[in-house]
Amino acid sequence: MYTILVVDDEPNYQIVLSELLRDEGYEVFTADSGSTGLPIVHEADLDLIISDMKMPGMDGIEFLAKIKEYNRELPVILLTAFAEVEMAVEAMRLGAFTYLAKPFSNEQLIASVGNAIEHYNLIREIRRLRDEATPRSGFGGMIGKNPSMRAVYQLIEKVAPAPSSVLITGDSGTGKELVARAIHNLSPRKNSPFISVNCAALSEHLLESELFGHEKGAFTDAISMRKGRFELADTGTLFLDEIGEIPPQLQAKLLRVLQEKTFERVGGSVTQDVDIRILAATNKDLKDEVERGSFREDLYYRLNVIHIHLVPLRERVDDIPALVAHFIEKNSKTLGKKLDISPDALRLLVTLPWEGNVRELENTIERAAILCSGDRIEPEDVQPDSSQLHDAQEWSTGLELNQFIPENLSLAEILNGIEEKLVRQALEDAANVQARAAEQLGITKSLLQYKMKKYKIKRKKK
Questions:
Q1: Which residues of 4-35 are buried (b: 16+ CB within 10 A; e: fewer)?
Q2: What is the value of pTM for the model shown?
Q3: Which of 52, 136, 351, 438 can pair with 141 through a Cys bridge, CB separation 3.0 to 4.6 Å?
């Protein structure tokens, strides 16, 4: 819902204009002078101001100047008598969007309001796109020709035109937000906002305000009205990252928005209508969360209309060379030097486990690009932190391997044997609850499942 401030010293004009605008679906604030209107400009999240030109005290020109000091892009429509047209033209030179000479028709006003808000939305969208502009390659910023990634690309192209909700799953760092942005950019909503919220980054109280907005005075720190991400994403796409972390109380409110396309701001009673597409992502198994009672089953099915799963990097190691080349090129531009990588360093990168997936690989290349001697990345530049290795290996000091390891076994056979034993023991200790076993081993659930597949450990039904 768009919000408009009407400023006029004549009460009848305030009433007529506000009722007309509310009938058109706008939220309206009113003020009888520029001095009483200014606090609303600072406190409310406005999309447009309609102000009379001639008012006692602060006139329309002075009020316009104050508005532009606060937000030079916020559109202002001035209402003026015929004799004040020259002043109105001067006001447009100072930044007013347009003016309407009294008397004007309702159609003229509504058309001007629509044009002003559309113009303001365009300015904000251009700013957003400029802020997000980064060099990208591949499909929607994703890189890889592995069959699993090609399947993801095909699925994105199929689901993008539809209005349905999409649940994107995968380990941390696999590129779930890139998938969400690709869906948005290929959808009919591509010219509308793409708004992202990390549900794990905020407390329940802050997350509710961030999603739904709040009215002035709704809580101690609510010093002004603020629109939430649902309103900001209207006609566009809202991406809810880490949806598995959303508290139960907010799950109910989110379900209502998905079902009815309506909500109220925190501390408010006015029902807001929204037209948005919901994309959600998680690194959790939401089916397990539903069984444990920590995630609503009805919300799960509302979100999981279409499911896209991203495999971990260790399951598409053939994409690592292309990813490394991309990140080296990116860091070459950032650091202003032509970087390269040795074949030995690249071979080492392909053998590492990458539990942090593409994000970990990107960070590794960035660190190597900064710390390498000269312009060539060598194996020592991409080695894990030696201090961490030292800490992890302290337990084995003085361990006599000959006591329990048979002779004539290769290193791979020894490590695989120990790992399989640890995985089976962890599953047994955790009563075959995979999430608990993975936590005990200090690995992700998807990595545990990968190891179970590797050692042919069958998944036991609960």
A1: bbbbbbeeebbeebbebbeeeebbbbbbbbbb
A2: 0.67
A3: 136
Read off the pLDDT of residues 187-223 as tens digits, 9 standing for 90 and up: 999 989 999 999 998 888 889 999 999 998 888 788 8
Phi-psi region of 352 (alpha: psi -120 to 50; beta: other; left: phi over 0): beta
| CA nearest neighbour of 382 among 348, 415, 414, 416 | 348
HSE (CB half, 13 Å, CA atoms) of 452? 23
| Radius of gyration for the chain, computed over Cα atoms and rounded to the nearest angstrom | 29
pLDDT at 401: 65
77's enclosing H/E stretch is strand 76-80
The predicted-structure confidence for 219-242, as pLDDT tens digits, reads as follows: 878 888 889 999 999 999 999 999
Distance CA 433, CA 371 (A): 42
Q: How far apart are CA 4 and CA 70, in angstroms?
A: 16
Query: Nearest to residue 38, comparing CAs of 17, 67, 9, 13?
Result: 67
Alpha-carbon gap, residue 134 to 128, rounded angstroms? 12
Q: Which residues pair with 101 in a beta bridge?
A: 80
**Cα gap 260→436, rounded to integer Å:** 37
Instruction: Give the pair of three-digit tokens for residue 1.
Output: 């819902």
CA proximity to 225, closest of 3, 37, 45: 45
CA distances from 393 to 35, 171, 175, 230, 396 (A): 69, 26, 32, 49, 6
- Is residue 369 within 8 A of residue 335, CB to CB? The reply is yes
Taking a C-beta distance cutoff of 8 angstroms, is the pair 60, 78 a contact?
yes
Confidence at residue 82, expressed as pLDDT on a 0 to 100 scale: 66
CA dihedral 238, 241, 243, 247 (to 10 degrees): -90
Question: Which element (helix H / strand E) includes 129?
Answer: helix 106-132
User: Per-residue pLDDT averaged across 134-138, rounded?
Assistant: 42
Residue in the structure block whose two tokens are 């939401």: 286
Q: What is the tally of structural domains in the chain? A: 4
Last residue of a domain, one of 105, 130, 155: 130
Last residue within a domain, chosen from 311, 335, 365: 311
Whether 212 and 292 map to the same domain: the answer is: yes
Q: Are 5 and 41 in contact (CB under 8 A)?
A: yes
Non-local CB neighbours of 227 within 8 Å, separated by 6+ positions? 3, 45, 213, 265
Which domain covers residue 435, as residue numbers? Answer: 402-454
Looking at 336-458, which runs of residues are DSSP E strands? 340-341, 376-377
What is the residue type of 370?
I
Name, in order, each residue with C-beta under 8 angstroms of 262's C-beta and a sequence gap of 6 or more.
256, 271, 272, 273, 274
321 and 305 part of one domain:
no
Q: Give the pLDDT band (50/70/90) at residue 130.
A: low
